[in-house]
Amino acid sequence: MPRFMDENMEMVKLGKGFNFSGTKIEKLGATEYTLVTIAVDVTGSVWGFEKELRDCLITAVEACQKSPRVNNLLLRVITFADQFANGVNELHGFKLLSEINPNDYLDFTPGGMTPLCDACYSAVGAMNAYAQKLTDDDFGVNAIAFVITDGGENASVATMKMVREEMEKAIRGEMVESMVSVLVGINAEHYRDELEEFKREVGFTQYVDAGEATRGRLAKLADFVSQSVSSQSQALGTGGPSQNISLVI
Question: Domains along the chain?
Answer without folding.
Answer: 32-235 (3.40.50.410)
